[in-house]
Design goal:
Structural class of chain B: alpha/beta
Number of helices of chain B: 11
Mean pLDDT of chain A: 83
Distance between the termini of chain B: 48 Å
Shape of chain A: elongated
Number of strands of chain B: 11
Mean pLDDT of chain B: 87
Oligomer: heterodimer
Number of helices of chain A: 12
Number of strands of chain A: 0
CATH superfamily of chain A: MetI-like
CATH architecture of chain A: Orthogonal Bundle
CATH class of the largest domain in chain B: Alpha Beta
Shape of chain B: globular
Strand content of chain A: under 5%
Order of helices and strands of chain A: HHHHHHHHHHHH
Low-confidence stretches of chain B: none
Largest interface: A-B, 26 and 38 residues
Structural class of chain A: mainly alpha
CATH class of chain A: Mainly Alpha
Largest sheet of chain A: none
Number of domains of chain A: 1
Order of helices and strands of chain B: EEEHEEHEHHHEHEHEEHHHHE
Strand content of chain B: 15-25%
CATH topology of chain A: MetI-like fold
CATH topology of the largest domain in chain B: Rossmann fold
Number of domains of chain B: 2
Radius of gyration of chain A: 25 Å
Radius of gyration of chain B: 21 Å
Distance between the termini of chain A: 64 Å
CATH superfamily of the largest domain in chain B: P-loop containing nucleotide triphosphate hydrolases
Chain lengths: 308, 338
């Protein structure tokens, strides 16, 4: 009996009216953006390549760090160009470049995502605190932001890595600890104006505390610029990681990573074009895809902004 | 009407620092009391300190000096934490129905905020209470999951009313609740507020710059000018026995539906602008624009007290209060020393 009544209720009740959140609307706009969608597809391909890197080993039969000094190098000891065995050629130690690019994607994406996440979390929390709490907190944090922004990042990174030795953790931490300041500055600026809005006063009149107002009322309103900045930050971080690797401060060999591959190709520009071209292309396509996707996200989340 | 005092404001001052060393005296020593069950209207020009006074009453601002007593407890010194339980009893309805609702949150979550903050109900119970409230204020409960941007101005103000009433407050401070709305919508919201007052035994402080609205809803009216109350009277008396020249000037500016009456009635046009609150005039703050100003008006500040044969219910801050029928349009200020 009760079941029957419930059945009727379900049938009679009109479908609950679901408002479309600004986020859902933005995603909707984004899905109509062809360039952004193609970029997203490229990004997904690269992610798949990273996840299924062992498949490349299985197909070619070449592990990423295996040195084929006999078949992978010319009799003069130079890298071999693209051929039936090594589709994208070999590097100076006779390793398969295709397999190493696939494994290198893991490093780039991992560093790109983790370092960006650290950056954004630190930046948002400190920016929120500075903008919302004001007073002495704001003064201290705003000065700290200025200091971090004016520190020559690369010099400090080089100094730090030369002390601790190169590793994935150090790379991620160095990037994370030096990039948050620009996020914090953006968030702080937004919060300063949001703080004066009447809905914040309304929350206060209901008895909400600072923490609740900051994270429940203010934070959702700064998420749009944060999401945009995040997507545009990932390619910057990937390039930074490659730069550190290029300078010999990335991952200890023989781990495959794009920056390191480009670095070791330096002496073979004239003799082995494939050695620099393919890792370079991988880096270029990845950052380009992220940047174009980031542009799409910005347009979708802020429809008023001019498309310049 | 009962005369139980619910909220008492005593000599409240609120000053804001400016970038130079001056201060803006937004509220410059106001005393009044709000009786249980009444609607106290608060009128005045833009910038006269009405909204600041309202925020002081709700302890959204710390007062510079003076005290606000709610049910016998001085709330001006309470910390934010100590104030929390009292927040349930004193609620505010804000002026801007666009700015006072968080654009990124669903309406159900906005109206449910009071329950969440005070840990009263959660989950399905909260949802049920929110939908009851939505029904109470004339919103479709099925719109629970919509965002504020999907509502009209009047509907948004209903959301604000629902949020303010969620915890069954004793005192609701309405800070220009209808000023941002179309006239036809204004009437709906005012009637809603009146119905809710009857149903839940609410006390209102109703702020507006629109005298006709205030007249319609209020039992008593306080007229503010430049941070001070110049006249405080039961609504009928304020209109029939206007004592303060500023009140009379405000009343004369009220639009009248009948053109014949409109042409023949007294028109008082005040000269000049409202003086700066950083540097208010000495003596009576209104003397620079008052048609009846005399030398002592500029020298001394008139206290807010019963004048002529008025009862204590009707208080006026004026040395030369108007009598019934006195013609103010021909009055000339005399500020020269004799």
């Amino acid at each position: 009996m009760t079941a029957a009544i419930e059945m009727v209720d379900v049938l009679d009740e009109p479908k609950a009216i679901e408002g479309r959140s600004p986020f859902v609307l933005a995603v909707h706009r984004l899905r109509k953006d062809k360039v952004a969608m193609i970029s997203l597809a490229v990004i997904l391909l690269i992610v798949l390549m990273a996840i299924f890197a062992p498949v490349f080993t299985a197909i070619t039969g070449h592990p990423p760090n295996e040195q084929y000094r006999d078949i992978g190098l010319t009799p003069d000891g130079l890298p071999r160009g693209p051929n039936g065995t090594f589709w994208l050629g070999t590097d100076d130690l006779g390793r398969d470049i295709l397999v190493r690019i696939a494994y290198g994607a893991r490093v780039s994406l991992l560093v790109g995502v983790i370092a960006t996440a650290i950056t954004v979390v630190i930046g948002v929390v400190l920016g929120l605190a500075a903008g919302f709490l004001g007073g002495i907190t704001d003064t201290v944090l705003a000065r700290l932001i200025d200091v971090v922004l004016s520190v020559p990042f690369l010099l400090v990174a080089i100094a730090l890595v030369s002390v601790t030795g190169p590793s994935l953790t150090v790379t991620v931490l160095v990037i994370g600890c030096f990039s948050w300041a620009s996020v914090a500055r953006i968030v702080r600026g937004q919060v300063l104006s949001l703080r004066e809005r009447e809905f914040v006063e309304a929350a206060r009149s209901l008895g909400a505390g600072d923490g609740r107002i900051m994270f429940v009322d203010v934070l959702p309103n700064v998420m749009a610029p944060v999401i945009v900045y995040t997507t545009l930050l990932i390619p910057v971080v990937i390039v930074t990681q490659a730069t550190l690797s290029f300078l010999g401060l990335g991952l200890p060999p023989p781990t495959a990573d794009w920056g390191g591959m480009i670095s070791s190709s330096q002496n073979y520009y004239t003799t082995a074009w494939w050695f620099i071209l393919f890792p370079g292309l991988a880096l270029l396509i990845t950052t380009l895809a992220f940047n174009l996707f980031g542009d799409g996200v910005r347009d979708a989340f802020d429809p008023r902004a001019d498309r310049t | 009407m009962t005369t139980d005092v619910l909220l008492k404001v005593e000599n409240v001052r609120k000053e804001f620092p400016t970038h130079s060393k001056e201060v803006v005296q937004a509220v410059a020593g106001v005393s009044l009391e709000v009786h249980k069950g009444e609607t106290l209207g608060l009128v005045g020009e833009t910038g006269c300190g009405k909204s600041t006074l309202a925020r002081c009453m709700a302890h959204l601002y710390d007062v510079t000096s003076g005290s606000v007593t709610f049910e016998g407890q001085d709330i001006t010194k309470l910390s934010r934490k100590a104030m929390r339980p009292l927040r349930r009893d004193v609620q505010v309805i804000f002026q801007d129905p666009y700015g006072s609702l968080n654009p990124r949150r669903r309406v159900g979550s906005i109206i449910g905020d009071p329950f969440a903050i005070h840990n009263i109900a959660s989950g399905n119970e909260r949802k049920k209470k929110v939908q009851e409230l939505m029904e109470l204020v004339g919103l479709n409960p099925e719109h629970y999951n919509r965002f504020p941007a999907e509502f009209s101005g009047g509907q948004r103000q209903r959301i604000g009313v629902a949020r303010a009433l969620a915890l069954r407050p004793k005192l609701v401070i309405c800070d220009e609740p209808v000023s941002a709305l179309d006239v036809s919508i204004q009437a709906q919201i005012i009637n809603l507020l009146a119905d809710l007052q009857k149903e839940f035994d609410l006390t209102y402080v109703f702020i507006s710059h629109d005298l006709s609205v205030v007249r319609h809803v209020s039992n008593r009216i306080a007229v503010m000018y430049l941070g001070k109350i110049v006249e405080l009277a039961p609504t009928d008396e304020l209109f029939s026995q206007t004592r303060h020249p500023y009140t009379r000037a405000l009343l004369s500016a009220l639009p009248v539906a009948d053109p014949d009456t409109a042409d023949s009635r007294e028109q008082i046009i005040l000269g000049g602008d409202i003086p700066s609150a950083t540097n208010p005039p000495e003596g009576c703050r209104f003397h620079t624009r008052c048609p009846k100003a005399r030398l002592d008006c500029a020298a001394e500040e008139p206290p807010l007290e019963a004048v002529l044969d008025d009862s204590w219910q009707h208080r006026t801050a004026c040395f030369y209060p108007l009598t019934v029928g006195e013609d103010l349009s021909t009055a000339v200020p005399d500020l020269k020393a004799s």
